Amino acid sequence: MSVKLFIRSEFFSVPKENFKYCLPFISRNISKVLRNMKFVKLSQTNDLMPTLGLGTWQASPEVIEQTVYKALDLGYRHIDTAFNYNNEEAIGNAIKKWIDNGKGTRKDLFITTKLPHVGNRAGDVKKFLNLQLQRLQMDYVDLYLIHMPFGFHCNPDTMTPLVKSSGEYDLDLDTNHITTWKIMEECQKEGRIRNLGLSNFNENQIARIMSASTLKPQVLQVELHASFQQLELRKFCAENEIVVTAYAPLGSPGAKDHFVNKYNYSPGAFPDLLGHPEVADIAKSHGKTTAQVLLRFLVQQKVVVIPKSTSETRLKENSELYDFELTPSEMNRLKKLDTGEKGRIFNFLFWKGVEKHPEYPFKLDKVVEVEKN
Q1: Which of 21, 69, 76, 85 is catalytic?
Q2: What is the mean pLDDT of the chain?
Q3: Hey, which residues does 39 pair with through a beta bridge?
């Protein structure tokens, strides 16, 4: 009888009687994060996706380059970025340096990036993907998501959305998910994308793509935390073998000042999950931080989490969520924190006029329809 070891993306068979001699090697060569890491299997490729990743939104290129290198050294293997984050080049530099320094190989990593809202059309998919691969210094990405279900017309000089004199964003009312998805399927067959997915799409939009696709979405990335648990959407995804990734799994405390200062958000729009007494009580009973409990709550339900931090201390803390388990009673207490749609933080209304787009994914009390010119 033999024991199978999974090291650096390869399986090794070791006779059972010799397994104990491998333990010192494993301990020396694999970090605590990597030893404890849990994975979900993507249904169409059987790729293993780490359930913990590093979110990189709202981090400057200089800071994120150092952060990604630190995270990889700690044992993180899943890095999430996007064209809109303006840091793909810095992340590519960090990964190249890490590989060049003999720390690991490209196959050890799971890299996610996203087609931007200004490229959300069939004719732009390959242009943006090629640019993103160039910035990341990679031949392929493990997961490529359509970042938003709606699209904007693009300023070719800045590669940002065009904005009208009224301050409203110039909506691309011809957004077509099916034709865009077909081109992404081509890119997957060409080997430049391993897995395809969506971000911020609703159930109807996902179903429409599934009905017309050869390769169905493997992953859906959405806002998800204890105050906004998205139960119906998660049920739909489970029924269709779509892995759910949670962004803002801690309620996005780091983005609070950004949204309050730049977009006049109310500070009350951000739930104080890290300071919630129920979460604190559960954390105390396990000798854990409230962040670790909130992340464990999601991972224990087979949700992938991508918390963002640039602090090495918090990177370590966020990764220490596999050495304890919440009891059924504790899980129920946390499930009761769900406030439904009231808990949503990111409705994207900071892009003025976006709710008028026919593919705006969320329900609002009042939505003004816009006719195509």
Answers
A1: 85
A2: 90
A3: 50
